[in-house]
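Two quick folds needed for the group meeting slides. Do the first one here.
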Amino acid sequence: MSRFAGQVALVTGGARGIGESVSRLLAAEGAQVVVADVLDDDGRALAEEIGAEFVHLDVGDPASWAAAVEGRAFTIAVLNAGIGARYDDLTLVDDGVFEQVIAVNATGVYLGTRELLRCMRGRGGAISVTASIAGLVAHAQSPIYAASKWAAIGWVRSIAPSLLTEGIRINAVC
């Protein structure tokens, strides 16, 4: 029997990179996978290839999260969507860059946790957040990215005890 048979799994940032690999693995292990991404063409192609479903999801948008979770019985979620930002001179960084990195890497984890709690409440589940070593130590090459990952790790550490009372495990993977 497949390890994840009977499980319904959401993978954000699921169209490429780590998310693509996770989507493929979960599908191969029997999970019913929902590939979620803003990269519609890549996400649809992957979903078709692995026998999954695709949903457009902007992780920084509450309405997008509500639509992605509505009517689905997720038991597994991998909050993997993430972006970085490197620069040589902080004074030249547009505020929009900071806001976008925080929206995807930190706000997206908060919004996802909230919507998944609504979805998993009463049935339990597991949430895995793709974090980074940059969220544990100083990362001079990309402080905005590091700040967003520190926020994600802090959120996971802080929310884990209350989610556990709901039968939901949450972990951050660096």
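Then this one, please, same format:
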Amino acid sequence: QKTETGDRHLDCSDGFEISFANVGYSYQKGTKAKRALHDVNVTIRNGEVIAVVGENGAGKTTFIKLLMRLYDPDEGEILLDGVNVRDIAYEEYMALFSTVFQDYRLFAFSLKENVCFGAEASDAEIEALLRRVGLRERLDTLPQGVHTAVLKEFDESGFEPSGGEGQKIALARALFKNAPIVVLDEPTAALDPKAEYELYRRFDELVAEKTAVYISHRLSSAKFCSRIAVFHNGEIIELGAHDALMRQGGAYARLFAMQAQYYT
């Protein structure tokens, strides 16, 4: 779906903003095609953590794919500091993002290689990163530390990570890339409540001063975000911080109350 790629080079040394201006997109083309997104207007500010929430089919994933230029919009434009992202060198634009999607993959390499993929890194650096994302206890049980094989396809002494451990490895991989924008698609879906709590508690530390875009169905996780974009039928119908949206009493407040009733 991606079309042309430009040749303008990036200078994000002083930060940046990414703006969606009247953006629309349809997976099926034609005059009667249903719009997956339409008339989306939002600016992602440098250094903020923004949550993307809404029911299934609301447009959350399409929004993320457009943000990352996996697709280009049918309508409107996406701007980086006022420059249409189609005019920016594609590889440079993609280098802005570290991503953890729900369908991440682990490989039958060592734990270290699953994080750094052959990039220059010391064992201590990888070990510290894995401990930061919550793999301390598991790491202490591995006989060869970060050189222990993930999966047993080529090494019977390897280990089979649980779903939660796999998500933590994928998160460590994204953080190792050290890109200025972190995109997380349901990063706690496979974590137990204790691990989820620890991730939320340390989220600011993990992403440091990076920009983060966070898709979640668990609205309790949106409370720590700078702003929350509520999607419905391909549109952003509410945008603001948790407390402001709760006072507003709209769609977000209703969804939050619906989930909260099972915990109170």
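Slide caption for protein two: The chain is about 30% helix and 20% strand.
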